[in-house]
Write a structure and sequence with these properties.
heterodimer; A: alpha+beta; two-stranded antiparallel sheet; 3 strands; about 20% helix; B: about 550 residues; alpha/beta; six-stranded parallel sheet; 19 strands; globular
């Protein structure tokens, strides 16, 4: 679904539309797990991990 | 007419966007009422990053790009200012809000992209800036309530902008320019009460401005009569806020009829089922009005048919609502009336249950009034939201234990905030040197570090450092008295404070800057002891 992000009382020269990203299963899992973080609830945030297997 | 882009900066990235920015929504409505062409980009709601901010800056030939907000928007504002300068260099950049107002000279120096700042209330100043830009003028120093750049370099603070007293002359906020369906209504839930939890279409309103009290950690955004202009040490005009012995206030509120009409507008146009009052302290207004204001607002709720009626499935018809109360200023009667009109929860800044701490914070509340209001509110059927703070200047092991016992006895579930000296607060002025010291003299780093006080930034406690406060809070949450007792012994050895003596470093033996700080605290305590007189004086000098 796309949305026009500028809202006002006239038409702008250019439209600025964005595609609102749907929540992925990964997003949902990480958000739910974060709410219960502590003790045995720990997880890797895949968006932040630096994954370079060539480096030692 | 001027072509205006208003940008709502990103704030509290760790949470979803929950609140339509009331000030920007009002300024948008005022500018449209004056005939200007207005667009809003709610960066905080959409959270699409710099590429979209850049795209909105080039989407039209803007005459003005305006932005601002509370202090914690600073990081986002700094980014927006740079993007706007690069991609819309023709636009006059206008900044406002509590962020600019608390430190206008520093902000204008840290943000060279800003052409003019609105100091204090922008209801009149902002449209006057728009009008000047529209006719090609750039002499912003002729407009009251601005800080702008001298043609040859340096800054000019124009005359102070008087506060608007006829608040009912304001239009309703332009809520329709914000992504209500896409973002805000999805995040309507407020986990302070059952009704708040079930809210599915919430909007917030501001029925009053200011607070008569002098909490030393509080910043009233320069719109509570708390702001004065004074010459600083360099002989230049600058803002000044609460200081020990100098408190000024102006109490202003909308009429109950305006509030009723605003809620009806929110209901008829947006089908809301919950209203959050953003007011600093509803009870200040109620007391100042001679105990008529809240009653009349509640009467509006009934007369308009908004007082909620429960359905069998747990939902309701009508509109529940919530706001802020005060331990000493509330009454049993008004709480009952509020509940009957649909009030579900009230935020109380109890802050502490230790008398010796409460005496120093300027709140006008005592342990007894905290407890009294707590039970009155529960008895009325309203959930009290008992906010707590640790790390006050004279916080000690005794106050920590008193708080834990109170939480335990009263069933309070809370993770306290840390006492934080936000710019514009009395404690920011008092502890400015100490704050600078914690950030290597770089005040901008402190501003960037500020969050909502649930994380730690500059410490103003004389007895505990940041690491100690973090550890003590953890032990408090677990009601772990044994660990706190153990640590007190270590602390006493480290600071050579014998058993039986008060666990405080606020003694007569302190030297240098610390002694000066201690004197300030003593003076503050003195002021606190006569705070009723101070508040009454402030009230007597106010109009509404």
């Amino acid at each position: 679904m796309s949305n026009e992000v500028l809202r006002g009382n006239f038409e702008t020269r250019d439209k600025v539309e964005i595609k609102q990203s749907e929540e992925t299963l990964e997003d949902r899992f990480e958000m739910e797990a974060k709410k219960r973080l502590g003790g045995s609830i720990a997880f890797v945030s895949k968006k932040k991990v630096m994954w370079d297997t060539d480096k030692k | 007419m001027a072509k205006i882009l208003l940008i709502n900066p990103t704030v509290r990235e760790e949470d979803v966007p929950r609140h339509v920015p009331y000030g920007i929504a009002l300024l948008a409505a005022i500018a449209m009422e004056k005939g200007h062409q207005v667009q809003v980009y709610d960066e905080n709601a959409w959270r699409q990053g710099d590429e979209v901010t850049k795209a909105v800056c080039v989407a039209d030939d803007w005459d003005i790009i305006g932005y601002g907000g509370i202090t914690t928007t600073y990081g986002s504002v700094k980014r927006i200012a740079k993007i706007a300068k690069r991609y819309a260099p023709q636009a006059v950049q206008v900044m406002g809000g509590g962020l600019l107002t608390s430190m206008p000279r520093e902000m204008m120096s840290w943000l060279p992209e800003v052409d003019v700042g609105c100091v204090g209330e922008g209801f009149i100043t902002f449209p006057e800036i728009c009008e000047m830009v529209d006719r090609g003028g750039r002499e912003f120093w002729d407009i009251k309530g601005t800080v702008s750049r001298k043609p040859g370099g340096g800054l000019i603070m124009s005359q102070i902008r008087p506060l608007l007293h006829d608040l009912d002359s304001l239009p309703f906020p332009a809520w329709e320019l914000f992504p209500l369906e896409e973002v805000y209504f999805k995040n309507s839930q407020v986990l302070f009460s059952e009704e708040g939890m079930l809210a599915s279409r919430r909007l917030d309103i501001n029925a009053s401005y200011g607070c008569s009290l002098i909490c030393r950690f509080c910043y009233h955004l320069g719109i509570a009569g708390d702001m004065r202009y004074v010459e600083d040490e360099n002989g230049e005009m600058n803002v000044a806020f609460d200081q020990p012995g100098t408190y000024t206030r102006s109490i202003r509120y909308h009429s109950p009829e305006y509030v009723g009409a605003l809620v009806k507008h929110a209901h008829d146009k947006f089908n809301v089922n919950f209203i959050g009052f953003l007011d600093e302290n509803l009870m200040t207004m109620d007391k100042f009005s001679g105990r008529t204001w809240m009653n009349d607002i509640c009467k509006q709720w009934h007369d308009l048919g908004f007082a909620p009626k429960a359905n069998d499935d747990g939902t309701w018809t009508g509109i529940h609502w919530a706001g802020t109360s005060h331990a000493t200023l509330c009454t049993k009667e008004v709480l009952t009336t509020m509940r009957e009109a649909g009030c579900s929860h009230l935020v109380y800044g109890y802050e502490s249950f230790a008398p010796h701490v409460l005496k120093t914070i300027g709140k006008g509340a005592t342990r007894e009034s905290n407890l009294r209001s707590f039970f009155w509110t529960l008895e009325a059927g309203i959930r009290p939201v008992p906010n707590q703070i640790i790390g006050f200047p004279n916080e000690d092991f005794e106050s920590i234990r008193m708080n834990m016992h109170a939480w335990d006895d009263l069933g309070i579930q809370v993770k306290p905030h840390f006492a934080t000296p936000y710019p514009g607060s009395e404690w920011f002025t008092t502890y400015r040197e100490r704050i600078n010291g914690q950030y290597d003299g770089d005040l901008e780093r402190f501003i960037l570090d500020l969050g909502d006080a649930s994380s730690i930034s500059a410490v103003i406690s004389h007895n505990f450092n940041a690491v100690e406060l973090l550890g003590l809070r953890e032990a408090m949450l677990q009601l772990n008295y044994r660990r706190i007792d153990e640590y007190e012994q270590i602390w006493r050895r480290n600071h050579q404070i014998p058993d039986g003596a008060p666990s405080t470093l606020l003694s007569e033996n302190m030297t240098g800057a610390f002694l000066r700080d201690a004197d300030k605290v003593k003076n503050a305590i003195k002021d606190s002891e006569r705070q009723d007189a101070v508040v009454e004086t402030a009230n007597a000098g106010s109009t509404h």
